[in-house]
Amino acid sequence: MATTTTARIFNFSAGPAVLPLEVLEQAQRDLVSYPGIGMSILEISHRSKTFDEIIQGCEADMRTLANIPPNYKVLFLQGGASLQFSMVPMNLLPAGGSADYIITGAWSQKAAKEARRVGAVKVAASTEGEKFTRVPRQNELTLDPNAAFVHMTSNNTIFGTEWHDLPDVGGVPLVSDMSSDIFSGPVDVSKFGLIYAGAQKNLAPAGVTIVIIRDDLLQRSAPSLHTMLNYAVHAENQSLYNTPPVFTIYVMRLVMAWLLKHGGLRAIDAVNTRKAEKLYAEIDRSGFYRGHAQKDSRSRMNVTFRLPSEDLEKTFAKEATGAGLDGLKGHRSVGGMRASIYNAFPEAGVDALVEFMREFERKNG
Ligand SMILES: *Cc1c(COP(=O)(O)O)cnc(C)c1O
Q: Average pLDDT in the 246-269 region?
């Protein structure tokens, strides 16, 4: 029987995405009988002492990692980042108010679409005219000082762009969809009113969504809201109003411990920068590959690039898969290739892709 380790290939999937091998191995060891309880983590009550330690340990590690200030709550919710597209405006946008949305790709468009069902949305900026090849500059933002909040997408998973400096939104609460770059480096949580992220790119398997919300904003959640859609209810119940995804939270806890063990967000930041730079250097080396993102907006998590023709792109994807480099086909709206290289993606996989790209260019260039 092949061992887990030798059977693994390099997985460039945009999400659900690669998890640290150490974490998978630990989960495998614990699966049938979690130490000390004689039951699987899949079988235990979310009200048990064991799970209590897991969810609290997970939150504590997150707070340590990201230096989350005490006046912020961490919520473990379901429904994916996509449900947050609705929950954010349902909770934070008062009747008669309006919210500013910065449109930098498909996910921010979807977020704005749901917000429009709730109330007034003003587009503070959009880079759609440039095919979302960059995020807007500060002087391109039309911000309303009376907005209920400003919504941004910190990393545009599909287009491969990322904000490198936060927009200055004055005193208006900044809300960020960080699904695809959360904890990829240090983050100043105090700059945000609310951060949300689906887990399945950089945190854990699919099934849980993290919401980090400043205490005072919880007062905006109207009691008339549906219970499960109300942030204040989840905060009051420590995310245990109903059954949370126990297994996903357990794996997330292992991922947080893995991050801490390997030096925290500063250390992973350095690795992520190095990995991305290696790929962009290869893209820039000759004219064969063309990056989709403009240089000052390049994502460190999702590296998008084109080849000289769609035929070559097809061949590239096919041969790469054959060489053990999987998941490189880009999103249909951008075309070309996308290498997703989240925290858990090994640097050796980036080196292997660079090597493959050189060889492919030599044969086809
Ligand atoms: C993947 C992704 C989403 C959607 O997440 P779901 O958990 O599938 O709803 C939203 N925003 C961004 C930036 C993403 O990368």
A: 98
Q: 122 pairs with which residues across the strands?
A: 100
- Give the H or E element holding residue 116: helix 106-118
State the average pLDDT over residues 120-129: 98
Do 54 and 155 fall into the same domain? yes
Provide, rounded to the nearest whole percent, the portion of the chain with pLDDT above 90.
97
Which CATH number covers residue 86?
Answer: 3.40.640.10
User: Is the minimum distance from the CB of 179 to ligand 1 under 6 angstroms?
Assistant: yes
**Dist. CA 1 → ligand 1 center (Å):** 36
The reported pTM is 0.97
| Ligand 1 touching residue 81 (CB < 6 A) | yes
DSSP track, 288-351: SSEESS-GGGB-SSEEEEE-SSHHHHHHHHHHHHHTTEE--BPPTTT-SEEEE--TTS-HHHHH
Neighbours of 42 (CB within 10 A): 11
Output the CA 81–ligand 1 centroid distance in Å: 5
pLDDT given at position 193: 98
Domain boundary among 202, 230, 261: 261
Residues 292 and 358 in one domain: yes
- Tens digits of residue pLDDT in 13-61: 999 999 999 999 999 999 999 999 999 999 999 999 999 999 999 999 9
Please report, for residues 37, 39, 48, 86, 253, the alpha-carbon distance to residue 244 in angstroms, rounded to integers and kept in the order given.
20, 18, 12, 19, 14
| Residues above pLDDT 70, as percent of the chain | 98
Question: 162: helix, coil or strand?
Answer: strand
Q: Please say whether the beta carbons of 215 and 236 come within 8 A.
A: no
Asked if residue 84 has its Cβ within 6 Å of ligand 1, the reply is no
Query: Containing domain of residue 346, as a range?
Result: 264-364
Positive/negative CA dihedral, 16, 19, 25, 31? negative
In a domain, 169, yes or no: yes
